[in-house]
Design goal:
Helix content: over 70%
Number of strands: 2
Low-confidence stretches: 1-5
Strand order of the largest sheet: 1-2
Number of helices: 26
Distance between the termini: 38 Å
Structural class: mainly alpha
Largest sheet: 2 strands, antiparallel
Radius of gyration: 24 Å
Mean pLDDT: 89
Strand content: under 5%
């Protein structure tokens, strides 16, 4: 017997566990707020710090920690494969006209009589199509804010509704990185996760629709300035194939999801349909391979944006493409389109995938050394029901959003911490993944020093605490999730073969012996 296997490791105290967590949280806070850098390496340093405490103070063998990290990363491999599918999907959907068509038709519903509702729907559609609330706010959101000024709609109100739509679409989109991260951490698949979120996000979204309708009545008599919207639609129609036919691709993916088909094959069906559309438009297969590898780069919009300061060159470019709108507005619209459409490709997923690997490395090191278990036991002491467990997850996500300053970590850390507890009591992991997004993703934008809050406040030009009261979806969703769970609505237990089984506040008798909280 070797010395490494003979030594019995000590169990960390709650004080030590919290101290280790706070030290790493402080490092992450410095990285986000002071150094303004990515948090990947900080997470690795956090894992090294936690590992050193675990090995040299607690006496854990290094091999145990290494195995824990490797096993944890393997759990996240499906999410990584899905993200490596989403990259080519985004590139092919933009090139073939799928995403531009969704944005084009979304902008067509803008009307003074339903301005706030239209804002909500447009931002939802754009974010659902692109998988990014940040991109939606920084492009279409800015254009809508400009229109709102002419209608007399307060900027904080408009910004809040933009965020509602952007985060709903981001949360429900299979193209979103957080939508892929949450099920990976919880141990379920992508489409199970999205179906689970419908139970809480669906009712919340309906409430927000009613709120926007009521709020919008007072601005129904205004006149819209359609110049910017018309410029965006004109450029989209000039550069891309705009047709309802392109919507076959997302409809096919949604249909396969409803038929409970695996996520990766379903997404690749969407890619193949888009490839056929793109080939039909005259793109070469070689060009498509490059787009799916490295992402799509707009052509006409980029040329127009680049010629924005050269009036003669811009006028010539617009004349060649039969665009008769105001050159200055067209140049602004071109910049928006470039920001929104210059994305996708397999390589674009590397930042998110490397973050997933770093987050798993830190979380699994904390878990292997026993820190997470000790903190979990302390959190679980007052928990006596499914509702209490969901509240504990949501509260942990909120704390991580506050102290870690990043939505990815507010999903990864509580997910790693609570996964074993959901398994123990027999709840399906989609319940955990849903709860992680109900708070971890949505609340991040409501905190000024969180990366999401700081970004949206900067790009929309509205301080976080000013748009917060109008970001109805983001703070109502966690509340609705808690209420529904306590009422026994939308609770799914793990079946004998791992399938989700709809039940109530207690585990269905046919699934075997109930486990006490």
């Amino acid at each position: 017997m070797t010395q490494e296997t003979a030594r019995e490791p000590k169990t960390p105290s709650l004080l030590l566990s919290v101290l280790v967590f706070l030290v790493v949280a402080a490092l992450i806070g410095m990285a986000v707020l002071y150094w303004e850098t990515d948090i990947h390496l900080v997470l690795i340093f956090g894992a090294l710090f936690a590992g050193c405490v675990g090995v040299f103070y607690l006496g854990n063998p290094y091999s145990k920690i290494e195995k824990g990290v490797i096993d944890g990363i393997m759990v996240g491999m499906q999410a990584c494969l899905i993200l490596y599918t989403v990259g080519p999907l985004i590139g092919s959907w933009i090139c073939s006209g799928v995403v531009p068509s969704m944005i084009y038709y979304g902008l067509s519903i803008l009307s003074p009589s339903i301005f706030l509702l239209a804002t909500l729907l447009i931002c939802s559609i754009v974010s659902l199509a692109t998988g990014t609330s940040w991109g939606t706010a920084g492009t279409v959101g800015i254009a809508i804010l400009g229109i709102a000024v002419g209608l007399g709609v307060p900027a904080p109100m408009t910004a809040g509704i933009i965020i509602c739509g952007g985060y709903f679409g981001d949360k429900m989109s299979p193209l979103s990185d957080t939508t892929n991260l949450a099920p990976a951490v919880a141990g379920t698949d992508l489409f199970q996760h999205i179906r689970a979120m419908c139970w809480t996000s669906g009712p919340t979204y309906c409430i927000v629709v009613v709120i926007t309708l009521v709020l919008g009545f007072r601005y129904a008599g205004g006149q819209l300035d359609y110049a910017k919207i018309d410029a965006i639609k004109t450029l989209l129609a000039t550069e891309f194939w705009i047709s309802p036919v392109t919507l076959i691709a997302p409809v096919a993916v949604i249909a396969l999801s409803a038929m409970r088909k695996p996520a990766i094959p379903a997404l690749w069906v969407g890619v193949m349909i888009a490839v056929v559309f793109a080939l039909f438009q005259g793109n070469s297969f070689g060009d498509l391979l490059n787009i799916m590898q490295n992402g799509y780069s707009p052509a006409l919009s980029a040329d127009v944006a680049g010629a924005g300061e050269d009036a003669a060159a811009l006028a010539k470019l617009l004349a060649e493409n039969n665009i008769t709108l105001d050159p200055k507005i067209v140049a602004e619209a071109a910049n928006d389109i470039v920001s929104l459409m210059e994305r996708g490709g397999l390589q674009s997923m590397n930042w998110t995938i490397s973050l997933i690997l770093c987050a798993f490395s830190f979380g699994c090191t904390m878990d292997s050394c026993g820190f997470l278990k000790v903190m979990l036991n302390a959190i679980m002491k007052p928990v006596k029901s499914v509702g209490g467990l969901v509240v504990a997850v949501i509260a942990s996500c909120f704390i991580c959003d506050l102290f870690l300053g990043d939505q990815y970590l507010s999903i990864a850390m509580p997910g790693t911490m609570f996964k074993s507890e959901f398994d123990r009591v027999g709840l399906h992991p989609r319940m955990l993944s849903r709860s992680l997004e109900d708070c971890g993703t949505l609340v991040s934008v409501l905190i000024p020093w969180n990366t999401c809050g700081a970004y949206h406040a900067g790009v929309l030009g509205v301080p976080t605490f000013q748009y917060l009261p109008f970001a109805f979806f983001n703070y109502l969703n966690p509340i609705i999730a808690i209420i529904m769970t306590y009422l026994g609505i939308g609770i799914f237990w793990r079946g004998k073969d791992g399938e989700p089984v709809k039940g109530g506040k207690t585990r269905p008798a046919e699934l075997g012996e109930r486990v006490a909280f």
